[in-house]
Amino acid sequence: MQEVLTVVLSQGAAATHPLERIDAVARRAMQLLDADTDDSLFTLFQALSEVSLGYSATHALLAAVLCELTARRLQVPDFVRPVLVLSALTMNIGMAKEQDKLARQSAPPSTAQRQVIRDHAQAGALMLRDFGVANEDWLDLVGLHHEADETLGLSRNLECRRILRCADGFVAKIAARATRLGLSALGAAKAVLVSATGAQAGLVRHGHCG
């Protein structure tokens, strides 16, 4: 799954049959999660430190698993959760190559890389639309997954956007970089809480993320 997702994310607009492959990864990931949740989490946390595997894909898989577990705990309806998982798998498709480079490089992000980071959410949503994604919830979640202004986007996705943003931030903070060590799970949760506000902070404070 990690290898397939790495190829799709890194190829971006040039990927062949991307939606079918992403959907297959999502389905298999949920099957493995249901079969053994602890083993799934352990495997993904271990893989996160192996940047040679492709950091972007590992980040996406772990975020997707955390989103699913959090959504179950919050009793998000069954028909909503698959879109949240797909969004987690693809939220960084607009910067996957740069994300892998940033995980390996010891220098701070360049000006060009910072621009890619700023633009990647909307770039990812546009790429998914070009792939043929017609699900507006999927596009909304990917396009706004870093947006703190909760008046934007589809109001029905607000809870899922909070979950996705929380999981994304948590995984980013536990992941080590060439320039820093990763935080512990508790440290990452505290860091996410410090930067969160309102209902977003409530997700972390009550243990629903991380």
What does the model show?
There is one protein chain. It contains eleven helices and no strands. The protein is mostly helical. The protein has one domain: Orthogonal Bundle (Hypothetical protein af1432). Helix 4 crosses helix 9, helix 5 (81-90) crosses helix 8 (136-143) and helix 9 packs across helix 10 (185-195). The longest helix is centred in the middle third of the chain and has 21 residues, at 111-131.
**CATH-defined architecture:** Orthogonal Bundle
Structural class: mainly alpha
Overall domain count: 1
Note the run of SSEs as H and E: HHHHHHHHHHH
State the total count of DSSP E strands. 0
What is the CATH T-level topology? Hypothetical protein af1432
Helix content: 55-70%
CATH superfamily: Hypothetical protein af1432
Q: β content, as a range?
A: under 5%
Distance between the termini: 22 Å
Observed structural traits:
globular, 11 helices, mainly alpha
